[in-house]
Amino acid sequence: MDALYRGLALDGRVRLFVLRLTETVREAARHVETRPTASAALGRAMAAAVLYAAGTKTADAIHLLIAGDGPLGRVVADAFRLPDGALGARGLVERPEIDLPPRSDGKLDVGGAVGRRGTLVVARELAGGPPYRGTAPLVSGEIGEDFAFYLLTSEQIPSAVGLGVLVAGDHTVEAAGGFWLHPLPGAEGEILEVLEARLREAPPVTTLLRRTPFPEAAAQALVGEAGHWETVEPVRFYCTCSEAKAARTLRLLGPKALVEEAARGRPLEVRCGFCRRRYTFPPAALRRLAEAVRSGAEEGRDET
Q: Is the Cβ–Cβ distance between 120 and 145 less than 8 Å?
Protein backbone atom coordinates (compact mmCIF):
# COMPACT_ATOMS: atom_id res chain seq x y z
CA MET A 1 0.00 0.00 0.00
CA ASP A 2 1.27 3.48 -0.84
CA ALA A 3 1.66 5.72 2.18
CA LEU A 4 3.26 8.92 3.46
CA TYR A 5 5.08 8.61 6.80
CA ARG A 6 5.60 11.81 8.80
CA GLY A 7 7.92 11.89 11.79
CA LEU A 8 10.78 13.43 13.73
CA ALA A 9 14.40 12.40 14.09
CA LEU A 10 17.64 13.43 15.79
CA ASP A 11 16.08 14.42 19.11
CA GLY A 12 13.18 16.19 17.43
CA ARG A 13 15.40 18.55 15.48
CA VAL A 14 14.59 17.20 12.02
CA ARG A 15 11.23 16.80 10.30
CA LEU A 16 11.19 13.62 8.24
CA PHE A 17 8.81 12.57 5.46
CA VAL A 18 9.21 9.20 3.76
CA LEU A 19 6.93 8.27 0.87
CA ARG A 20 6.15 5.04 -0.91
CA LEU A 21 4.25 5.84 -4.12
CA THR A 22 4.77 2.77 -6.30
CA GLU A 23 1.17 1.80 -7.04
CA THR A 24 0.08 5.40 -7.57
CA VAL A 25 2.84 6.15 -10.07
CA ARG A 26 2.32 2.81 -11.80
CA GLU A 27 -1.33 3.66 -12.39
CA ALA A 28 -0.54 7.18 -13.58
CA ALA A 29 2.09 5.86 -16.00
CA ARG A 30 -0.37 3.28 -17.30
CA HIS A 31 -2.97 5.96 -18.01
CA VAL A 32 -0.52 8.32 -19.70
CA GLU A 33 1.30 5.44 -21.48
CA THR A 34 4.80 6.64 -20.65
CA ARG A 35 8.10 5.17 -21.77
CA PRO A 36 10.72 4.50 -19.03
CA THR A 37 12.44 7.91 -18.91
CA ALA A 38 9.09 9.69 -19.03
CA SER A 39 7.78 7.37 -16.28
CA ALA A 40 10.72 8.31 -14.06
CA ALA A 41 10.11 12.03 -14.55
CA LEU A 42 6.39 11.60 -13.96
CA GLY A 43 6.93 9.61 -10.76
CA ARG A 44 9.48 12.01 -9.34
CA ALA A 45 7.19 14.98 -9.95
CA MET A 46 4.25 13.20 -8.34
CA ALA A 47 6.38 12.26 -5.33
CA ALA A 48 7.49 15.89 -4.91
CA ALA A 49 3.87 17.07 -5.05
CA VAL A 50 2.71 14.53 -2.45
CA LEU A 51 5.62 15.29 -0.10
CA TYR A 52 4.90 18.99 -0.33
CA ALA A 53 1.16 18.49 0.18
CA ALA A 54 1.86 16.46 3.31
CA GLY A 55 4.12 19.18 4.67
CA THR A 56 1.71 22.01 3.87
CA LYS A 57 -1.31 21.35 6.05
CA THR A 58 -3.05 24.62 5.16
CA ALA A 59 -3.30 23.78 1.45
CA ASP A 60 -6.27 22.03 -0.11
CA ALA A 61 -4.27 21.13 -3.21
CA ILE A 62 -0.78 21.38 -4.65
CA HIS A 63 -0.11 21.86 -8.36
CA LEU A 64 3.43 21.38 -9.60
CA LEU A 65 4.57 22.34 -13.10
CA ILE A 66 8.03 21.69 -14.49
CA ALA A 67 8.73 23.49 -17.75
CA GLY A 68 12.22 22.60 -18.98
CA ASP A 69 13.98 22.91 -22.32
CA GLY A 70 14.30 19.14 -22.80
CA PRO A 71 12.35 16.93 -25.22
CA LEU A 72 9.87 15.73 -22.58
CA GLY A 73 8.01 19.05 -22.53
CA ARG A 74 5.96 20.03 -19.51
CA VAL A 75 5.56 17.76 -16.50
CA VAL A 76 2.50 18.29 -14.30
CA ALA A 77 1.70 16.75 -10.92
CA ASP A 78 -1.19 17.41 -8.53
CA ALA A 79 -1.66 16.29 -4.93
CA PHE A 80 -4.66 16.96 -2.71
CA ARG A 81 -6.59 15.87 0.35
CA LEU A 82 -9.43 13.44 -0.28
CA PRO A 83 -12.67 13.36 1.75
CA ASP A 84 -11.58 10.17 3.56
CA GLY A 85 -8.37 11.82 4.76
CA ALA A 86 -6.06 10.11 2.29
CA LEU A 87 -3.79 11.93 -0.12
CA GLY A 88 -4.67 11.76 -3.80
CA ALA A 89 -2.23 12.29 -6.65
CA ARG A 90 -2.19 12.42 -10.43
CA GLY A 91 0.26 13.53 -13.10
CA LEU A 92 1.06 13.75 -16.78
CA VAL A 93 3.90 14.57 -19.15
CA GLU A 94 3.56 16.45 -22.40
CA ARG A 95 5.44 13.86 -24.48
CA PRO A 96 5.06 10.45 -22.82
CA GLU A 97 6.81 8.69 -25.71
CA ILE A 98 10.20 10.21 -24.82
CA ASP A 99 12.80 7.65 -23.72
CA LEU A 100 16.50 8.55 -23.63
CA PRO A 101 19.53 6.24 -23.37
CA PRO A 102 20.64 5.66 -19.75
CA ARG A 103 23.33 7.85 -18.21
CA SER A 104 26.89 6.58 -17.78
CA ASP A 105 25.99 5.37 -14.25
CA GLY A 106 23.12 3.29 -15.63
CA LYS A 107 20.35 5.53 -14.26
CA LEU A 108 17.51 6.92 -16.34
CA ASP A 109 18.39 10.32 -17.79
CA VAL A 110 15.58 12.36 -16.28
CA GLY A 111 17.62 15.56 -16.36
CA GLY A 112 18.26 15.16 -20.07
CA ALA A 113 14.57 14.55 -20.74
CA VAL A 114 13.33 17.45 -18.61
CA GLY A 115 16.14 19.84 -19.56
CA ARG A 116 18.71 21.74 -17.53
CA ARG A 117 17.12 25.14 -18.04
CA GLY A 118 13.56 26.11 -17.25
CA THR A 119 11.21 26.80 -14.37
CA LEU A 120 9.58 24.93 -11.51
CA VAL A 121 6.21 26.40 -10.56
CA VAL A 122 4.42 25.41 -7.36
CA ALA A 123 0.84 26.56 -6.80
CA ARG A 124 -1.04 26.05 -3.55
CA GLU A 125 -4.81 26.23 -3.21
CA LEU A 126 -5.22 27.53 0.32
CA ALA A 127 -8.15 26.63 2.50
CA GLY A 128 -10.21 29.78 2.95
CA GLY A 129 -7.64 32.05 1.36
CA PRO A 130 -6.20 33.23 -1.95
CA PRO A 131 -4.00 30.82 -3.93
CA TYR A 132 -0.23 31.04 -3.59
CA ARG A 133 2.22 30.65 -6.47
CA GLY A 134 5.98 30.33 -6.23
CA THR A 135 8.64 29.76 -8.88
CA ALA A 136 12.30 28.83 -9.06
CA PRO A 137 14.68 28.11 -11.93
CA LEU A 138 15.65 24.53 -12.63
CA VAL A 139 19.14 23.62 -11.45
CA SER A 140 19.54 20.15 -12.96
CA GLY A 141 16.24 18.87 -14.34
CA GLU A 142 16.52 15.85 -12.03
CA ILE A 143 13.46 17.18 -10.12
CA GLY A 144 14.64 16.26 -6.61
CA GLU A 145 17.42 18.86 -6.70
CA ASP A 146 15.09 21.34 -8.35
CA PHE A 147 12.45 20.87 -5.64
CA ALA A 148 15.04 21.32 -2.87
CA PHE A 149 16.27 24.52 -4.54
CA TYR A 150 12.69 25.80 -4.75
CA LEU A 151 12.15 25.12 -1.04
CA LEU A 152 15.33 26.98 -0.14
CA THR A 153 14.93 30.02 -2.37
CA SER A 154 11.15 30.49 -2.44
CA GLU A 155 10.19 29.31 1.05
CA GLN A 156 13.48 29.57 2.97
CA ILE A 157 13.34 25.91 4.02
CA PRO A 158 16.78 24.25 3.81
CA SER A 159 15.99 20.69 2.80
CA ALA A 160 17.35 17.38 1.68
CA VAL A 161 15.12 15.79 -0.95
CA GLY A 162 15.45 12.41 -2.62
CA LEU A 163 13.09 11.15 -5.34
CA GLY A 164 13.32 7.91 -7.25
CA VAL A 165 11.52 5.65 -9.71
CA LEU A 166 12.65 2.18 -10.76
CA VAL A 167 11.26 0.96 -14.08
CA ALA A 168 11.32 -2.76 -14.88
CA GLY A 169 12.36 -4.31 -18.17
CA ASP A 170 8.72 -4.54 -19.27
CA HIS A 171 8.40 -0.75 -18.70
CA THR A 172 6.20 -1.08 -15.61
CA VAL A 173 6.99 0.95 -12.50
CA GLU A 174 8.63 -1.36 -9.96
CA ALA A 175 9.28 1.17 -7.19
CA ALA A 176 8.61 4.87 -6.69
CA GLY A 177 8.74 7.33 -3.84
CA GLY A 178 11.00 9.72 -2.01
CA PHE A 179 11.95 11.53 1.17
CA TRP A 180 12.09 15.09 2.46
CA LEU A 181 14.18 16.08 5.47
CA HIS A 182 14.44 19.57 6.91
CA PRO A 183 15.68 20.95 10.24
CA LEU A 184 13.10 22.56 12.45
CA PRO A 185 13.54 26.28 13.24
CA GLY A 186 16.51 26.89 15.52
CA ALA A 187 18.25 23.63 14.61
CA GLU A 188 19.63 24.51 11.20
CA GLY A 189 23.37 25.03 11.80
CA GLU A 190 25.25 21.88 12.79
CA ILE A 191 22.38 19.53 11.99
CA LEU A 192 22.63 20.37 8.29
CA GLU A 193 26.22 19.15 8.23
CA VAL A 194 25.17 15.93 9.96
CA LEU A 195 22.40 15.36 7.42
CA GLU A 196 24.62 16.07 4.45
CA ALA A 197 27.22 13.59 5.71
CA ARG A 198 24.59 10.88 6.25
CA LEU A 199 22.95 11.40 2.88
CA ARG A 200 26.24 11.14 1.03
CA GLU A 201 26.43 7.56 2.27
CA ALA A 202 22.74 6.71 1.78
CA PRO A 203 21.71 4.24 -0.94
CA PRO A 204 19.41 5.24 -3.84
CA VAL A 205 15.80 6.03 -3.03
CA THR A 206 14.51 2.97 -4.88
CA THR A 207 16.77 0.78 -2.71
CA LEU A 208 15.41 2.41 0.46
CA LEU A 209 11.85 1.76 -0.69
CA ARG A 210 12.48 -1.99 -0.75
CA ARG A 211 14.13 -2.26 2.66
CA THR A 212 12.18 -3.73 5.54
CA PRO A 213 10.79 -2.84 7.94
CA PHE A 214 9.61 0.25 6.09
CA PRO A 215 9.93 3.15 6.87
CA GLU A 216 12.20 2.46 9.85
CA ALA A 217 14.95 0.94 7.70
CA ALA A 218 14.81 3.89 5.33
CA ALA A 219 15.08 6.35 8.23
CA GLN A 220 18.01 4.40 9.64
CA ALA A 221 19.88 4.81 6.36
CA LEU A 222 18.99 8.50 6.09
CA VAL A 223 19.50 9.82 9.61
CA GLY A 224 21.07 6.95 11.56
CA GLU A 225 18.00 6.07 13.61
CA ALA A 226 14.56 4.55 13.10
CA GLY A 227 12.77 7.85 13.68
CA HIS A 228 9.68 8.69 15.69
CA TRP A 229 6.64 8.39 13.43
CA GLU A 230 3.66 10.61 14.18
CA THR A 231 1.27 9.90 11.31
CA VAL A 232 0.82 7.51 8.41
CA GLU A 233 -1.36 8.72 5.54
CA PRO A 234 -2.53 6.44 2.71
CA VAL A 235 -1.92 7.70 -0.81
CA ARG A 236 -3.65 6.65 -4.02
CA PHE A 237 -4.11 7.70 -7.61
CA TYR A 238 -7.12 9.94 -7.96
CA CYS A 239 -8.30 12.12 -10.82
CA THR A 240 -10.52 15.12 -10.24
CA CYS A 241 -11.90 15.26 -13.77
CA SER A 242 -15.68 15.31 -14.24
CA GLU A 243 -18.33 15.83 -16.88
CA ALA A 244 -18.93 19.34 -15.54
CA LYS A 245 -15.25 20.24 -15.98
CA ALA A 246 -15.27 18.76 -19.49
CA ALA A 247 -18.32 20.88 -20.29
CA ARG A 248 -16.53 24.00 -19.04
CA THR A 249 -13.69 23.20 -21.43
CA LEU A 250 -16.12 22.97 -24.34
CA ARG A 251 -17.73 26.27 -23.37
CA LEU A 252 -14.43 27.95 -24.20
CA LEU A 253 -15.10 27.17 -27.86
CA GLY A 254 -17.89 29.74 -27.85
CA PRO A 255 -21.52 29.40 -28.99
CA LYS A 256 -20.82 29.66 -32.72
CA ALA A 257 -18.31 26.79 -32.76
CA LEU A 258 -20.54 24.65 -30.52
CA VAL A 259 -23.54 25.12 -32.83
CA GLU A 260 -21.38 24.25 -35.84
CA GLU A 261 -20.18 21.05 -34.15
CA ALA A 262 -23.78 20.12 -33.27
CA ALA A 263 -24.83 20.67 -36.89
CA ARG A 264 -22.38 17.98 -38.00
CA GLY A 265 -24.61 15.48 -36.22
CA ARG A 266 -21.77 13.72 -34.42
CA PRO A 267 -20.94 13.70 -30.71
CA LEU A 268 -17.91 15.62 -29.50
CA GLU A 269 -15.50 13.90 -27.13
CA VAL A 270 -13.33 15.39 -24.39
CA ARG A 271 -10.57 13.18 -23.02
CA CYS A 272 -8.90 13.78 -19.66
CA GLY A 273 -5.13 14.13 -19.99
CA PHE A 274 -4.51 12.56 -16.57
CA CYS A 275 -6.69 9.43 -16.54
CA ARG A 276 -7.76 9.24 -20.21
CA ARG A 277 -11.43 9.07 -19.26
CA ARG A 278 -13.68 10.11 -22.13
CA TYR A 279 -16.66 12.44 -21.82
CA THR A 280 -19.03 12.38 -24.79
CA PHE A 281 -21.36 15.26 -25.65
CA PRO A 282 -24.05 14.50 -28.28
CA PRO A 283 -25.35 17.27 -30.58
CA ALA A 284 -28.25 18.09 -28.26
CA ALA A 285 -25.85 18.62 -25.36
CA LEU A 286 -23.65 20.84 -27.53
CA ARG A 287 -26.63 23.01 -28.44
CA ARG A 288 -27.55 23.34 -24.75
CA LEU A 289 -23.99 24.38 -23.96
CA ALA A 290 -24.07 26.95 -26.76
CA GLU A 291 -27.29 28.41 -25.39
CA ALA A 292 -25.84 28.51 -21.88
CA VAL A 293 -22.75 30.35 -23.11
CA ARG A 294 -24.89 32.78 -25.08
CA SER A 295 -27.18 33.42 -22.10
CA GLY A 296 -24.20 33.98 -19.82
CA ALA A 297 -22.70 36.51 -22.22
CA GLU A 298 -26.00 38.37 -22.45
CA GLU A 299 -26.31 38.47 -18.66
CA GLY A 300 -22.80 39.89 -18.46
CA ARG A 301 -23.71 42.68 -20.88
CA ASP A 302 -26.84 43.49 -18.88
CA GLU A 303 -24.75 43.96 -15.72
CA THR A 304 -22.35 46.45 -17.31
A: no
Q: Report the C-alpha gap between 63 and 79 in whole angstroms.
A: 7
Q: How far is CA 141 from CA 6, 86, 112, 127, in A?
A: 26, 29, 7, 31
3-237, what's its fold? Hsp33 domain (3.55.30)
pLDDT tens digits, 192-226: 888 888 888 899 999 999 998 999 999 999 998 88
Query: Is residue 85 exposed (0-12), middle (13-18) or buried (19+ Cβ within 10 Å)?
Result: exposed
User: What pLDDT sits at residue 240?
Assistant: 96
Which sequence spans correspond to the domains of the chain?
A: 3-237, 243-303
Is the confidence at residue 263, as pLDDT, over 60? yes
Report the distance separating Cα 24 and Cα 87, nearest Å. 11
- Residue 258 sits at φ, ψ, to 5 deg, of -65, -40
Fold category of 243-303 in CATH: CBS domain Like (3.90.1280)
Alpha helices in the chain (DSSP H): 22-32, 36-55, 110-114, 144-155, 188-201, 205-208, 216-223, 243-251, 255-263, 283-303
Task: Determine the pLDDT at residue 297.
Answer: 53
Phi, psi (5° rounding) for residue 103?
-70, 175
Tell me what pLDDT residue 96 has: 98
